Structures
1.
Amino acid sequence: MNIAVSVPLIIQDLPDGPLALPAKKDVHHAVWQLLESVTDPEIPVLSLREIGVLRAVRSSSEGLQVFITPTYSGCPAMEQMQDDVRQCLEVAGFQAKVITCLSPAWSSDWMTSEAKAKLLAYGIAPPHSRPSHTENSRVQWMKPSSFLKVACPQCGSDNTTETSHFGSTACKAMFTCLACMEPFDYFKPY
Ligand SMILES: [Zn+2]
């Protein structure tokens, strides 16, 4: 049964984030370590921590809680991520409630630099940094990526063109390299 709930939650005040593992050898550290093996269902070379989806681990009177934020609110992989997190911890003897946080919205700036390098090696052009963190970030996300210079992951040329604003998933755009003629996905910044 899916026990995850979806709540808006402000988590800026939570000390551990997606970019670093807690140093202390406590249960939270163990959980973060275990969850290193849980990868993005659509991009199996990236862990949920590296892509910035895994946000925090907490203990509460109701037990262990794991907070995740989808890359976008309608992400079809969300249930899969919740199940994967729960199963990974159950196998190790942890009962955890997976809580989906929609606020603040996920940002591609939460992706680690390591994750961006792995994306590139996987053949997906990593997202550019957002121009600024403003309330209009959703509008910026819609800015045509054809205005951006996106380097080809195959040959490195920036002589590329956007052929579709939506690639294999809604969070990616389809590009074609005009140098080597290979099509590739670009992970859109937002
Ligand atoms: Zn190319």
Note: Helices lie at 27-35, 48-51, 78-91, 113-122, 137-141.
2.
Amino acid sequence: MPHTPSFDLHIHAGAERDFTFEDLADRLAGENVSAIGVVDHLELYVDRKPVWAAEAWSWLAENDRLLYGDDTRGLLELLDDFAYFSELCKVPVRRGIETAGKDPIPREIAGKMDFVGLCIQDMGSAGPDWAEGLILQIERFAEAIEPLGVPGVIHHPFRPRLFALKKSAPAAPGEWRKALDGESLKRLAGRVVRSGLSLEINGMTAKSIAEEPGAIESLCGAYAAMKNMGVPFSLGSDRHGLEPAYSLHELARQAGLKRSNCPILKRLSVP
Ligand SMILES: [Zn+2]
Ligand SMILES: [Zn+2]
């Protein structure tokens, strides 16, 4: 019986980190992961920042916690620091960028970045057809990163917040389950396979639905169904601190994932 894969390619360790790389390396050594992916949001380093990114920098400045500049140079410094972090770890560390897909990825960082994550945004404009909204973002992203020659991951595709009926309102309980409807799931799976991207099993998503009875089982059932349709997977805790919000290993186990379902490891030359 092949082992359930255990890795974490979605760890926020950039401008907003409030821990040391040494502490993170220690923590991850205790989790027995076979590969680590550290990321930061591209939007923090672009010229025209979204409101949340501008606010994040102001907060860091006010609290005397500025580690990097807020431009491409800052991002380059961060990627160099990630290389330092990898020296502290016994397993392969890969460097990633998470992007909402709206800003071009600066040419200067090519070669310092191993993968790109698409931060899926809310599907407000897609109306009730959530799958079409998701597919549109996936296809645009796949096309945009093609020339970079690095693998791409679809981050938190089933995040409940995406299924809020109004942008401002929280999602109604169970609304996210629409995403798991058989026909939509099949349509989505087919397009993900064609895109060449990996679909992320996200720890924060699991944490945010864990209180709903049967929710984790439904979610993992959907992952398992997509796996059987040939969808490649990645695993990401999406942690912003040292502790993961939910056990990725447990989710992967429930979805029946094997290493062969995660070809991104091979693309990242993880032995
Ligand atoms: Zn994200
Ligand atoms: Zn993230």
Note: The mean pLDDT is 92.
